[in-house]
Amino acid sequence: MRVVIQRVKQAKVCVEEKAIGEIGGGLLCFVGVGKGDEEADADYLAAKIPQLRIFEDDEGRFNRSLLDIGGGILVVSQFTLYADCRKGRRPSFTDAAEPRQARELYHHFVTKLQEQNISVATGEFQARMAVELVNDGPVTLLLDSKS
């Protein structure tokens, strides 16, 4: 699994111009599921992300985690994280998981976050979404459960 994490002051996801998920300060996580990913991949990322020390303390150092600041997480599915652009001009998505498997692991990931008493908002799997955010920093990280 791959997750692009953005530290945000606020974020919102809309489907058909209606907000379906929204957070204040916290993390926006774009989640891609690849072929061969398993629940262990989702478990690893769901355990790691809330504990990443990427929020500043009083001295401006990255010493606080999402759990420390009580922030929320907005989780948005994004199969395009598995795009292969090495050949030609059109990305190939052959490394992305099939929708059924991806949906199951996406929901498993969300459930594992919720089990940590984190405020979790989500997009809609396989929907055309509009995502609005105010990036804080900016701080953007890429995590891959296979790396």
Describe what you observe in this structure:
The structure is a single chain. The chain is of the alpha/beta class and 147 residues long. It has one domain (2-144): D-tyrosyl-tRNA(Tyr) deacylase (D-tyrosyl-trna(Tyr) Deacylase, Chain: A, 3-Layer(bba) Sandwich), CATH 3.50.80. 20% of the residues lie in helices and 39% in strands. The protein has helices at 39-48, 66-69, 99-114; strands at 2-15, 18-23, 26-32, 55-56, 62-64, 72-77, 119-122, 129-144. Strands 1, 2, 3, 6, 7 and 8 form a 6-stranded mixed β-sheet that branches. Strand 1 (2-15) and strand 2 form a beta hairpin. Helix 1 packs parallel to helix 3. The radius of gyration is 15 Å and the shape is globular. It starts with a strand and ends with a strand.
Using DSSP, what is the number of strands? 8
According to CATH, the homologous superfamily is D-tyrosyl-tRNA(Tyr) deacylase
- Give the termini separation: 10 Å
* CATH class membership: Alpha Beta
Question: What do we call the CATH topology?
Answer: D-tyrosyl-trna(Tyr) Deacylase, Chain: A
Whole-number mean pLDDT: 96
Unreliable spans are none
Q: How many domains in all?
A: 1
- Helical proportion, percent range: 10-25%
Q: Specify Rg, calculated over alpha carbons.
A: 15 Å
Please write the string of helix (H) and strand (E) elements: EEEHEEHEHEE
Net shape:
globular
The secondary structure category is alpha/beta
Characterize the biggest β-sheet. Answer: 6 strands, mixed
What portion of residues belong to β-strands?
A: 35-45%
Which CATH architecture would you pick? 3-Layer(bba) Sandwich
Number of helices: 3
